[in-house]
Amino acid sequence: MITCQNVTVQYGSMKVVDELSLEIKKGEFFGIIGPNGSGKTSLLKAIGGGMIPVNGEIIVDGKSLSMYRSKDLAKKLAVLPQDSETAFSYSVWDVVSLGRYPYQKGWLQGMTKQDEQVITEALKQTETYQFRDKLLQQLSGGERQRVLLARALAQEPDILLLDEPTNHLDLSHQMNLLNALKHWAQTRQLTVVAVLHDLNMASLYCDRILLLDKGKMIALDSPTHVMEEGQLERVYGVSLNRKEHPSVPSPLITFIPERERENQLSAIDRLIIDRSPERIYMKSDKKWKALSSAVLGAGFRWHHAFVNRHVNKDYLADDPVTECKTYLHENGIDANDTLTMMTAARLEDASIIRSGPDAPAILVMISAGTSNAVDASMAYKLADWKTTVGTINTWVFIEGELPEAAYVQALMTVTEAKVKALHDEGIRDPVSGTLATGTSTDSVMIASAQTGPYYEYAGTITPVGKEIARLVYEGMRTTIQHYKKRMGVS
Ligand SMILES: Nc1ncnc2c1ncn2[C@@H]1O[C@H](COP(=O)(O)OP(=O)(O)OP(=O)(O)O)[C@@H](O)[C@H]1O
């Protein structure tokens, strides 16, 4: 529907769009992204007929743009420019009426009933109908933006060109506008070409995205392919992370601010450890990114503080989360920011050990009781609930930067080392009599400071994985030996 063939746009001798060739399909939501000055607006202006390329050709619906009469082009294509115009002394109704100009036959011909219907519909679609008698100057920036969109819609175009349409709009109006554009593209085959600065909005709404840099095409593809971390970092010159959107299959881009000037002490040395029979409490002035199955703060979360709380074997609360928050509150600990686990195991037996000087910097905490030890392969034979709670809680703090996949590998490494330690300590499932692989209520946390060396993987083949495995294995054995000694078993 729109074809650009070797299009070059210049200001004086400066090329701002450089030999660009592309096709935009009917009914497509097409995004243009790129840094400031990369030529997005210039390309949009050229497609809208507002700038004439010095080279190449733009074809709209099989006809060269240069062959269109201006009224015919205005019926086909409407533009929402970047800067709000300053025709402030017009009423909103009059501004939107201008959108009907291409349909008027003579100078003095008034509005037809149909024109009025189209204007009313455009005002309603953009939620500006209530402003129809107001002057443009009486509206806010975002309301004016929506009136100008209504004017573009009043042209009843097949193609809508929008330059940063969400500028000035609050979150709900941004979403409303983009949802409406997407809906019109899908239901009315409206072709939407939008310059967008917000990469996540572009990722969520566009069928395809053109990434421009210095007037050249860097990529033109679906959001999944264009939103490639390295490519965006090169073009925008910033550090960023790509994640997956939690509920739709679109990439999400998050930016990484320049790091705070790092304290001379390592993140592990900055952990203050407060240990008593009632709890093991670690806190830091620095936040750690943790993946855990904790009672409070489970999943991936950032935390300043960590609590491993001892509870009695007969602990029972209808709502352990609320009970846990109350406990923290009563002890002057901020519940919002504190990862919290519980264990019936005695904390006197717990091990807190640190890696050696030549290994990756890691701190491990393990508390363990094994009265409810279980062999996972026999667990289906057990009753759902046993009152004897032991629980092995394992914390691993890693001084380094880990991608999320490495957290999962670290989790496997911890589990493997734990199972081997239980095996070598001869811990058995009291019901089946077979060797235990854990207890029935174990919990685990992997935390990384996200500063320091980058560890792409954390399986047992890697130096960081080897050290995690060694510390967890040794710490687990020591803790279990303390437990056995106190219980008087060998
Ligand atoms: N009227 C003009 N005269 C001369 N140079 C211009 C003019 N308008 C834009 N330019 C230059 O052309 C280049 C491309 O500008 P353009 O507005 O197309 O970029 P953009 O990608 O839309 O940028 P932004 O994200 O800042 O809106 C820039 O270097 C800009 O300075």
Task: Briefly say what this structure is.
This is Iron complex transport system ATP-binding protein. By secondary structure, the protein is of the alpha/beta class.
Write the layout of secondary structure elements.
Layout: E1 2-11, E2 14-24, E3 29-33, H1 40-47, E4 55-60, E5 63-64, H2 70-76, E6 77-80, H3 92-97, H4 113-125, H5 141-154, E7 159-163, H6 171-188, E8 191-195, H7 199-205, E9 208-213, E10 216-221, H8 223-226, H9 229-236, E11 240-244, E12 251-255, E13 272-275, E14 279-292, E15 299-310, H10 320-330, E16 338-343, E17 351-354, E18 362-367, E19 373-374, E20 393-398, H11 404-424, E21 438-439, E22 443-448, H12 463-487
Parallel strand pairs: 3-8, 3-9, 6-7, 7-8, 15-16, 20-22
Antiparallel strand pairs: 1-2, 1-4, 4-5, 9-10, 11-12, 13-14, 14-15, 14-22, 17-18, 18-20, 19-21
This protein binds adenosine-5'-triphosphate (ATP).
Pfam family, one: ABC_tran
GO molecular function: ATP binding; ATP hydrolysis activity
Keywords: ATP-binding, Nucleotide-binding, Translocase, Transport
Q: How does this structure look, described?
A:
There is one protein chain. This protein has 490 residues and is of the alpha/beta class. The protein has 2 domains: 254 residues, P-loop containing nucleotide triphosphate hydrolases (Rossmann fold, 3-Layer(aba) Sandwich), CATH 3.40.50; 216 residues, L-amino peptidase D-ALA esterase/amidase, CATH 3.60.70. Helices cover 29% and strands 27% of the residues. The protein contains 12 helices and 22 strands. Strands 13, 14, 15, 16, 17, 18, 20 and 22 form an 8-stranded mixed β-sheet that branches. Strands 6-7-8-3-9-10 form a 6-stranded mixed β-sheet, with helices on both faces. Strands 2-1-4-5 form a 4-stranded antiparallel β-sheet, covered by helices on one side. Strand 14 and strand 15 form a beta hairpin. Helix 4 runs antiparallel to helix 5 and helix 11 packs parallel to helix 12. The chain is elongated. The N and C termini lie far apart (81 Å). The site of adenosine-5'-triphosphate has 10 residues, from helix 1. Adenosine-5'-triphosphate binds next to helix 1.
